[in-house]
Amino acid sequence: MKKILIVLFFGLPGLVAAQRFGGGVAGGLNVSQIDGDYWSGYNKAGLVGGAFVNTSFREHWGAQMEIRYAAKGSAKTLRTTEPRKIRLQYIELPLLITYDFYRVFQAQTGISMGYLFSSAQNEGDGYYEFDEFEPYELAFNLGLDYRFLDKLSVNVRFAYSILPTSSYYPGASFPYATFNNVFTFAFYYRIGD
């Protein structure tokens, strides 16, 4: 992991035109579902927030790394008399390649690695620990950032687990495994120049 970060931000001397780094803080909302749990809909909302650092390679290309808290999970429905919910809490490390266009837009794609530090389920009588999920997640990310002020932007991102987050047996795939399916809506505030 450490080697990947070093190569990404320092080890690309042929591509890096100038060592200009930026960064800031981000916060927003995740809406998620767990594919494979047989509940449908993005019915589980949760907070997301953290910090980021970015750099440029060429005129339009760059990279961004983040560290953030992300609440995910699923719920039977938003308005149900059966309050079944799964709450998953991750620390994530997204690594993104970025492309700037039209001066205010930025397309983003990459992967994120997550560590599940808490999982719980609620069947109407309060949350209790629920240890059926893998402790690590690897997810594909695709997003769009719109900078509407000099230091402030809004970001919409889709993330989907590449590897199962839980399975009924080792090596299982859908429909015998589950995958996080998440849309993130967040504000990004740039600190510094």
* Helix content bin: under 10%
Rg calculated over all Cα atoms: 18 Å
> How are the strands of the biggest sheet laid out side by side?
1-2-3-4-5-7-8-10
Distance between the amino and carboxyl termini: 29 Å
Number of strands: 10
**Can you give the mean pLDDT?**
87
H/E series: HEEEEEEEEEE
Helix/sheet category = mainly beta
Q: What's the story with the biggest beta sheet?
A: 8 strands, antiparallel, barrel
**Number of helical elements:** 1
Low-confidence stretches: 12-17
Strand percent estimate: over 45%
Q: Might you state the CATH topology name?
A: Porin
- CATH class membership: Mainly Beta
Give a description of the structure:
The chain is mostly beta strands. It has a single domain, classed as Porin (Beta Barrel), CATH 2.40.160.20. 4% of the residues lie in helices and 63% in strands. The protein is built from 1 helix and 10 strands; from the N terminus they run H-E-E-E-E-E-E-E-E-E-E. An 8-stranded antiparallel beta barrel has the order 1-2-3-4-5-7-8-10. A hairpin with a 4-residue loop joins strand 7 and strand 8. The longest helix is centred in the first third of the chain and has 8 residues. It is elongated. About 3% of the residues have low confidence.
Which properties best describe this structure?
Porin, 10 strands, 1 helix, 193 residues, eight-stranded antiparallel beta barrel
